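user: Kindly work through both lines:
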Amino acid sequence: MRLILNEIKDIAKKDGVITPAYDIKRVKENTAKTPKWLHFGAGNLFRAYVAKMQQNLLNKGLEDTGIIVVESFDTEIIDKVYKKHDNLTLSVTLSKDGNFSTEVIGSIVEALRIDIDKEKVKELIKASTLQMVSFTITEKGYNLKTPNGEYIPVVEADLNNIPEQAKHIMSVITELLYVRYKAGATPIALVSMDNCAGNGDKIKEAVGDIAKHWIEKGYIEKEFLEYISDEKKVAYPISMIDKITPRPAEVVKEYLEKLGFEDMNIVVTSKNTYTGAFVNAEAPEYFVVEDKFPNGRPELEKSDAGVYVTDRETVEKTERMKVTTCLNPLHTTLAIYGCLLNKKTIFDAVSDPYLNKLIKNIGYNEALKVVDDPKILSPKAFIDEVIDERFANKFIPDQPERIATDTSQKVGIRFGETIKAYLASDELNVADIKYIPLVYAGWFRYLLGIDDNGNERSISPDPMLDMLKERMVGIEFGKPESYKGQLKEILRNKMIFGVDLEEIGMANKIEDYFVEMLAGKDAVINTLKRYLG
């Protein structure tokens, strides 16, 4: 069998494969006439979860249009995966008990590349029926500036060029909003589905910044700023999303081939994106979104996909619960130490008794004390599920290296917010935090590019990697005496950690842990044993 539209009927006859309960061709026709949902970011999370939300609504007859996806970063995905398979995806849910559930996702009706299909996208953005533009472009996609506060070169160029020459994704979105404004200024919601705090606010801030520069240059009229600032016209709901969607796995490829599917090869693009005709993901899924859709919305809460449509305060509490307490800090901890200890997967890392104990101490004993309960989900139950079910699912082939990407952009939120809460508390003392400093020390040890056996290993991409390595010059594996305070300047960097770690009295603890980890072979695991018992 091939994963193409012409063979859907044959695929439907296959035991163990769920196919769409709606007419894909008709949904595509409806979407062409009345587009409602445009999405930027054609990656695995989008296909495994976002597209599934709409698939379920289509299956129930609660929607009659699909999603049009646009890729702005790695356009090879469109050519090598989407077009090759008529925009269909095989979604494989990996349960802890070893059962694989396979479904053909047909809700993505068109896939476009922003570099060659921009005029088509402009026509779509004009449609008065369009209810939302959503995003899975990673946290970096919303950043206009470097860590030192300067505009990224591509953004700097965009600010000085006419909108039609926009290159950065936020500049392109601002240009598209201007096109919609000129076409009647009809309402629209811009919905970030990325894993970052205040994600909708990040879009609003970026779009507003770019618009102001273009207005100053005389490229667009000042009334446009009123349009994008009026949330009855352009809304920027915040959201929390959670579903682990790792790279396509070889074991899943083999499983699909045994079912009879052809061309299930894992594709690696020139930008190092791992993709293919299938996506594999865990079963748990959560999407909590602020109910702010000025032009209407799909009934996402009826999609049976873990969706909650609620008020802003509840979204903020849920997002903070997940990102600062229940999942993300634990994930980053396992990633850093998983790399140092050469664990192949997150499952291998959480199965290590010391790493398991470390994340439990961070989650239950340090972070949970300051979490703000969102009520719709229990923080304690969430951590329980994360550690005992989600990370402990050996069929989720998630690699520590993937999670360790861009750590400098994550630690300020994932751990810094807990530290800030301690500082603001009358009952808690920041000096009692013992395990978060152990993560920071492990991260610095990881940045040396040497594992706990003393062998060189790769370091995952990070926008601040060059600066960090430069500050750490002179530190040598096996020579604790080579540490002469090289970390002090980094530890004072509030942009990385959210606080000045030296100012709050945590720097010495981190430095002491770090120096212990320099002792030589097995120094990392021995340090963990020493402090975890």
Remarks:
- The chain has a mean pLDDT of 96.
- Residues 199-217 form the longest helix (19 residues).
- The radius of gyration is 24 Å.
- Residues 36 and 130 are 4 Å apart (CA to CA).
